[in-house]
Structures are given as C-alpha cells and as structure tokens.
Design brief:
This protein has 7 helices and 10 strands. Helix 3 crosses helix 4. The protein is of the alpha/beta class and 223 residues long. Strand 4 and strand 5 form a beta hairpin. A 6-stranded mixed beta sheet has the order 6-7-8-3-9-10, sandwiched between helices. The chain starts with a strand and ends with a strand.
Length: 223
C-alpha cells in the first residue's frame, strides 16, 4: 500500500474534556486509484484527511506514506513535499492570475520562472482549462473552472498523493462529474493516489473504493 492508516486514534483536548474522534481506524490506499471516505458530519472523516495531510499527528497509531510514518518525518517537510490538498472553497490567491496561481508552489520550491510557467501551462492543459482563461483572475471564473485551477495547482506541488476535501461541494452536477472525471484520469494515467472526503452520493459510484465511517470507526469498504 502507498498510504496506510494503522490503528489510528485521535482525540481533541480542551480544558474541560477530551473528545475521541478517531477510534482505531485502519485502511489503505494505492496509487493509480481514486478513493472516497464518506459518512455523516462528525464521523471523523475530515479528521482522518487532516492526519493524511500532515496537519497533525495521531494520538496513537500511524499514518504511513510510502513506508515512512508521519511521526518520523518533519511535518513541514511532509506537507511541502509529500502531499497536495484540494479544498471545497478552492483557496486560490485572488491577486494572482490563473497561471501565476499554478506557478506559485513551484516558485516556492525555487523552480525558475520560465520553467514554472512551462510546467504550469502543461498542468492547466491537463485539467482541460482553455488558454483564454490563464491570464484572468480567479474571481472571473466559474466555480468549476476555479476547482480545475486548484487541481492544476495541486499537480504543481509535484507529489503523488492528492487529497480532496469535498471538491464538488460548491459545484453543480455537471461540473462535479467533470472534476471527478479529471481526478480519475490523473490517477489512471499518471499513477496518482487520490483520496476524496465527500457527502456527494452521486460521486461515490464513480470511485474505485469507498470507505464508510461512523462515530470515528471504519464501518466498511465498497469496491
């Protein structure tokens, strides 16, 4: 397995109480496939995704990527080099053009501007965004177009793990289908491991496997 959760527990602590959110979750994800994690609000699926993204460490158990546990690597390095996250709200930089948004992660890593521009152009073609949109600002694009830019920016992070937090949550049915089709194509053709947290029942039938969660526990997996 490329990505694994091994008996993962996670609790939130406050002055007054401790709340156990994940209760021994064990599951795995391979490259070349698109997975879903589904369940009602509060079931722990978003917390599981945040642990995969390296935003925190499990209280016990391990998140293991390509044989290395997140607790054995700097989380800053992990987030910068090992994983890319796609958000429901897109999180594009409003004062940068579409092309500059996709170039940005590469420039942070020291990629020269000309090379970053060439690679960003390729990523935007990969998500089927017309060249006429590349020099526009994100606010002038539709929701579906903005999410495609967000996916292109994730590709620019140069990692094999793409995590998507409700990527179709702000989109209509047609655009949702298009986003899932793009993610499936990326997984199949370029060997990405894609994990989606979603409430969207229409999305689930399109995925390679779906993990169902309830009350912090994994109920089942459907393939």
């Amino acid at each position: 397995m490329y990505l694994e959760l091994k008996d993962v527990h996670f609790s939130y602590h406050s002055k007054w109480q401790t709340t156990e959110v994940l209760k021994g979750v064990t599951c795995g994800f391979e490259r070349g496939k698109v997975y879903g994690i589904v369940g009602k609000s509060g079931c722990g699926k978003s917390t599981a995704l945040s642990l995969m993204a390296g935003l925190a460490l499990p209280s016990s158990g391990d998140v293991v990527l390509d044989g290395v546990a997140t607790r054995d690597i700097s989380l800053d390095v992990y987030r910068r080099e090992k994983v890319a996250v796609i958000y429901q709200s897109f999180r594009l930089l409003p004062l940068l053009t579409v092309l500059e948004n996709v170039m940005y992660p590469m420039e942070l890593r020291g990629v020269k501007r000309k090379e970053a521009e060439e690679r960003a152009s390729g990523y935007l073609r990969e998500v089927d965004l017309e060249e006429t949109a590349w020099n526009r600002f994100p606010s002038t694009l539709s929701g579906g177009e903005q999410q495609r830019v967000a996916i292109a920016r994730a590709l620019a992070c140069d990692t094999n793990l793409l995590l998507a937090d409700e990527p179709t949550g702000n989109l209509d049915y047609e655009n949702s289908e298009r986003i899932i089709a793009i993610l499936k194509r990326l997984a199949a053709q370029h060997n990405y491991c894609v994990v989606i947290v979603t409430h969207d029942v229409d999305v689930m039938d399109e995925l390679d496997a779906v993990y169902k969660m309830r009350d912090g526990r994994l109920l089942s997996v459907e393939k």
